[in-house]
Amino acid sequence: MIELRGIHKAFGENRVLQGVDLDIPRGESLVVIGGSGTGKSVMLKCILGLVAPDAGVITVDGQEAGKGDRDAFLARFGMLFQGGALFDSLHVWENVAFRLLRGTLKRPREEAREIAIDKLRRVGLKPQVADLYPAELSGGMQKRVGLARAIAAEPEIIFFDEPTTGLDPIMAGVINDLIREIVVEMGATAMTITHDMTSVRAIADKVAMLHDGVIQWTGPVAELDTSGDPYVDQFVHGRAEGPIEAVR
Amino acid sequence: MSLQSLTAAALAGTGRPVLIWLASVGRITLFFARTLGHMVRPPFYPREFLQSLIGIGYLSLPVVGLTALFTGGALALQIFAGGSRFNAEAVVPQIVAIGMVRELGPVLVGLMIAARVTSSIAAEIATMKVTEQIDALVTLSTHPVKYLVVPRVLAALITVPLLVAVGDIIGIFGGYLVGTLRLGFNPATYLQSTVNFLEFWDIASSLIKGAAFGGIAALMGCFYGMNSARGAQGVGRATKASVVAAAVLILAANFLLTQAFFSV
Prior knowledge:
The structure holds two protein chains of two kinds.
Chain A: E1 2-11, E2 14-24, E3 29-33, H1 40-48, E4 55-60, E5 63-64, H2 70-74, E6 77-80, H3 92-96, H4 109-122, H5 139-151, E7 157-161, H6 169-186, E8 189-193, H7 197-203, E9 206-211, E10 214-220, H8 230-237
Parallel strand pairs in A: 3-8, 3-9, 6-7, 7-8
Antiparallel strand pairs in A: 1-2, 1-4, 4-5, 9-10
Helix pairs in contact in A: 4-5, 5-6, 6-7
Chain B: H1 3-39, H2 46-57, H3 61-83, H4 92-130, H5 133-139, H6 144-181, H7 187-197, H8 200-226, H9 231-262
Helix pairs in contact in B: 1-6, 2-6, 3-4, 3-6, 4-6, 4-7, 4-8, 4-9, 6-7, 6-8, 8-9
């Protein structure tokens, strides 16, 4: 469904992506792992067109990203941002229903609010939360609201950028379970970026490891511990010694 | 060091900031053109526009009113003191009126808007940028310029001339209070002198300046906010740069507009 071929991206002298090739089949949950600063988020932003790659081709169902109707292209995606990226000036329900209050998916406000409350309930939040502002919520609640916003318009493809960063282990487990349930329930294609191995095991069908600007290894999550790849082994076991330099 | 290398270093030292400045002018011009383009193409966001009208216009009234009131009063005192040197104390109402309407009203309101509104817009949008809210807007199929910039610039273009009109009136009223209560002017004569002296073009130029200054103030806030660097320092720099740029551009635009309207 999503294909990346030869993606390069540099910021000045810093060559972040140096020829990324990756396939994400429809309905699969792919988790991309890799150290901090290895370009995982940049790769994800390249797919969405938030960052323009220097070279390479990205296609979604054969359609080249960045060409054709951009609104229709983006309407297929939902995204959970690392910090939530909730709009401070809007109520929680307006954040969740953002897409349903404007543009081609616009609905009457009451209907949009009902859908938002339903999605909030789906991620384990009470309807009373709907009328609060994001600043009034805890980090875990903000993540859930971000998740509710990502699924509100029932997208075909959902991206999760570091979904458990900054959360305690219990809340991280709750978010991981929610992501897995929602992806299975919606039949969505999912791509998650994380360096949290608990998330990887909970969310992934398939895992890809990004290092030195290229995909070093891809395989089913069941083969993660027996991959035989020294980069994956070092990362999975959290060893300071190995081919990945600890000081970057 | 040879004379040749010294000359080259001096030229490079001058050329680099000039090139940076020209690049900034180019980027701001393109940003302005892009904003104009989005102003006339749907979708429009009336809710955000209404919020901006209130935030930029209505909520700026107290600061504009107080600034104009004190400035009008001080102006009356200065003109009286200065005029008394050549027996021209009687022109206080006329000079306060023309000074407030043609110059001080629009410029002071413009600078107050730069301080209050430009800084707030720049800080808000810059924070949205560093917390990925701008990226979130894009992924939600919403163009950030349409959603964040157009409503604010349009609201400033509409409300700042109105604020200038209010500022002009309050400034003249400040002069009237000082003139009648402290300097011994007859209230009816003071008002009559003010009304008779002002011409249509004085008022029209004041409002045109207000629209121009409002546009500059909002545009600078949006431009520097959207181009903010990362982190708290990036937000701080964007806010500072936006206020400085808006204030300088407002004063420069004031000179150019005054030259265009009133040059003899």
